[in-house]
Fold this sequence. Notes:
Layout: E1 4-9, H1 13-33, E2 37-43, E3 59-61, H2 64-68, E4 75-78, H3 84-95, E5 99-102, H4 105-122, E6 126-127, H5 138-145, E7 151-157, H6 160-172, H7 176-185, H8 194-197, H9 200-214, E8 224-225, H10 233-242, E9 244-254, E10 259-269, E11 281-288, E12 292-299, H11 303-320, E13 351-361, H12 366-376, E14 381-386, E15 395-402, E16 405-406, H13 407-418, E17 423-432
Parallel strand pairs: 1-2, 1-4, 2-3, 4-5, 5-6, 8-10, 10-17
Antiparallel strand pairs: 7-9, 7-11, 9-10, 11-12, 13-15, 13-16, 13-17, 14-15
Helix pairs in contact: 1-11, 3-4, 4-9, 6-7
Amino acid sequence: MEPVKLGLLGLGTVGSGTVNMFHRAGVEIERRAGRQIVVTRAAAQDLSKPRDCETRDIELTDDPMSIINDPDIQVIVELIGGYEDARDLVLAAIRQGKHVITANKAMIAKYGNEIFAEAEKHGVTVAFEAAVAGGIPIVKAIRESLVGNHIQWLAGIVNGTTNYILTQMRDEGWDFQTALDEAQRLGYAEADPTFDVEGIDAAHKLTILASIAFGVPLQFDKVYTEGIAGIGREDIQYAEELGYSIKHLAIAQKTEEGIELRVHPTLVPHRRLMANVGGVMNAVMVYGDAVGRTMYYGAGAGSEPTASAVMGDILDVVRSLSAGPDNRVPYLGFQLGSLSSVPVLPMEAIETAYYLRMEVLDSPGVMAAVTQILAELNISIEALLQKVPEPGQDTVPIIMLTHRIRERQMNEALYRIGQLEAVQGKIVRIRLEYFDE
């Protein structure tokens, strides 16, 4: 049987890891695939740049379209990232009848509906396991292993940079900027960390997971997204006192009213496994009606963990070359023509518990005024910490946990509390999840 010839678009961290994996485990990969797989060509922006992989047997080019136009290339592995340029290359490959493997969560989240429709039209496969949570096979788990379940909710730490920052703030007592600086020094955060710390990267990944879990179109523009820059080390400390860790979570939940899609800092009880996922590691928890709560943990980024997911997709595609398009696993786990139109709920409609921290003047009646506003809006308090003022300070922090309420009630409460003269500065609000059934 003739070898399957691959073309790589991108020879950076993941591309190099993929080439290295072929060199190290080529025989085992061939045994598993049933035929030889060869990377024959690769595109890179700067051909003079040193590589972290052996490229003597690979033809290099700075023109990715030349690889797509090569009639000998059967499978395109897109690892350049970004939005429009990657989309154009992938669509061009699909229209030439080539199968595509990608680690590009941004492209899939934004343009996946278009890309999958085009792939179905041309009878080719688009595989994207590496787009979510690096080496954790979460896409395959939800799309294939849990098909007998109605997925009720999923929640995950899907960005290693934010998890590292919050872990260091907890363990070392650092503030946000110090932890971010260290993350950048170690290479965990980019020079421009916006996509990570503002939650955009996690929102891309949640978009994909929610579509697979609930059988709905990809809807990145409807994900509520909030980053971690507003978390202070005092919030980390107070949460610990109350028995919680602060994690940056991507949460999708199906309710009778619609689907919740939200990314934000979240208090998680210490007793939950999710609260103990530290450093740059990722974890995704999924609740299905048959299996109950399951959790998937591992390296969410890096050269070889992500290349591991790419390699899994490569083998799936190669194995499917002899299968007709109608017999392949649907991209989002459901046939494209049967995706549900269940609505995505606005953030104001979701229900959760809350952590609140506010600085107030150390004067009589302040607590009574705050609790009166909460009582008028039917918001009950589960726990309360009231600290003594530091020497020379005329303000004192108040920290409270509420029971579950609608977001719109909390928005109204925060607006009214913020109008009190005794309340100084911005009130910190962090949502809280228990992950109970």
